[in-house]
Design goal:
Layout: H1 3-31, H2 38-62, H3 66-102, H4 112-137, E1 141-149, E2 158-164, H5 175-186, E3 192-195, H6 205-209, H7 213-216, E4 225-227, H8 231-236, H9 238-247, E5 251-252, E6 256-260, E7 264-268, H10 274-278, H11 285-288, E8 298-301, H12 309-314, E9 318-321, H13 333-339, E10 345-349, E11 352-356, E12 374-382
Parallel strand pairs: 1-12, 2-3, 3-4, 4-5, 7-8, 8-9, 9-11
Antiparallel strand pairs: 2-12, 6-7, 10-11
Length: 383
């Protein structure tokens, strides 16, 4: 990505982030009495919390340490607090607007004590939502799919696939969560393991420091472990990430196709953001499959689920994607539903089965609301 494009993008994001935080801060301060000692605590506490994630991410790149870990963790939770705090303040302002015209609220809520109690209630509700979302985020489920592929596979009748996407190994997805993923996958006794991008979370340094690749070496599947790049591999540096993953037992498919057990094909696309970061385009699906025998089953890994019709037109039997996180935090799932044809789950287009996983890990807050993270257990049955 060109430096000026990054600066423009980062400036816009930072402006939005600062504006949302200021709105929450300003409205909260209006609810705290002018003579209350709580105002000072709230002011400094808010400033520290709102600055933590940005500071932690910058420090992580400059000097990885316990301090950068603490700031990143605190700031990551603040991202979820910020979203639900913002929604709480908007809801309160809408109620106040309605009360301005109807006067339906009891008079006590217009007093200093009443306003402060509303603030306390909003803070408590936000804390409960974020805590519940954290518990949900660290409790992945296994989703099972049984799909029929009407093709011959050299006598192979069934194929057991374990699939995961968006692991985001790093500061927030550390040894415990990575180990839990490996144990969950191995418990499925898969024939093959497929990782559909964003295996690492941007900066590789926390992955190396925590030796997270060691857990990946414990993945067991007789037909191999295959992965592809996601946008986060490119954000952090795709070449270094791929080299690390391959050194720890993952066969990375980069616009390449492999024939497995002389029975079926696994094709892996480079991430859609490759052109943005490297200036080089990735292959189209039809180009990628030029040398494949389409009378055999074809599985395509493509991190971002855009232009699903291309897989259908190219003769792909099963496309596996991730990236969307299904919004990760409600109500952001409404945005991903508007952007993607499939934000989460299964769809069939023509003869092509498509599955988009909300992922195992997460970006930003270690919080999920509205849905659970997952490992996908797929049974393919061949003719």
């Amino acid at each position: 990505m060109k430096s000026y494009q990054f600066l423009v993008f980062f400036s816009i994001v930072l402006l939005i982030y600062a504006s949302v935080n200021y709105y929450i801060y300003a409205r909260s301060m209006q609810a705290i009495p002018a003579d209350s000692s709580f105002r000072g605590w709230f002011r400094w506490g808010f400033l520290i919390l709102a600055s933590a994630y940005v500071a932690g991410r910058f420090l992580e790149r400059a000097y990885l340490s316990l301090l950068s870990d603490v700031l990143t963790w605190v700031g990551a939770f603040w991202l979820a607090v910020m979203l639900y705090g913002f929604l709480m303040v908007v809801l309160i302002d809408l109620i106040r607007l309605a009360d301005h015209f109807t006067g339906f609220l009891p008079q006590i809520l217009h007093t200093s004590r009443g306003k402060l109690n509303v603030l306390y209630l909003g803070m408590a509700a936000t804390a409960v939502i974020v805590l519940a979302g954290y518990i949900n985020a660290i409790t992945p489920k296994t989703t099972k799919l049984v799909l029929d592929i009407p093709k011959e596979a050299s006598g192979l009748k069934e194929l057991k696939i374990a699939m995961a996407s968006d692991i985001h190994m790093g500061t927030l997805i550390g040894p415990r969560r990575t180990g839990k993923l490996v144990d969950s996958i191995n418990a499925l006794n898969p024939d093959i393991i497929l990782l559909a991008g964003d295996i690492v979370d941007e900066d590789l340094a926390p992955v190396i420091r925590q030796n997270l690749g060691e857990a990946l070496t414990r993945l067991k599947a007789p037909l191999g472990v295959y992965g592809i790049t996601g946008n986060h591999e490119y954000i952090g540096g795709a070449e270094a990430a791929v080299k690390y993953l391959e050194a720890h037992g993952i066969t990375m498919l980069r616009d390449s196709v492999v024939k497995v057990a002389d029975a079926f094909y696994v094709a892996g696309r480079e991430d859609r953001d490759k052109n943005r970061f490297s200036g080089k385009p990735r292959k189209e699906v039809k180009e990628l499959l030029l040398g494949a025998d389409l009378s055999r089953p074809v599985i395509l890994l493509d991190h971002q689920p855009f232009a699903l019709e291309k897989a259908m037109e190219a003769g792909v039997d099963l496309q596996l994607s991730g990236h969307t996180h299904h919004g990760q935090l409600w109500p952001l799932n409404f945005i991903t539903r508007a952007v993607y044809e499939v934000s989460m789950g299964y769809k069939k287009k023509g003869n092509t089965h498509i599955y988009v996983s909300p992922g195992f890990g997460g970006w930003g807050p270690p919080v999920r609301t509205g849905h659970r993270p997952e490992v996908v257990n797929i049974l393919l049955r061949f003719r």
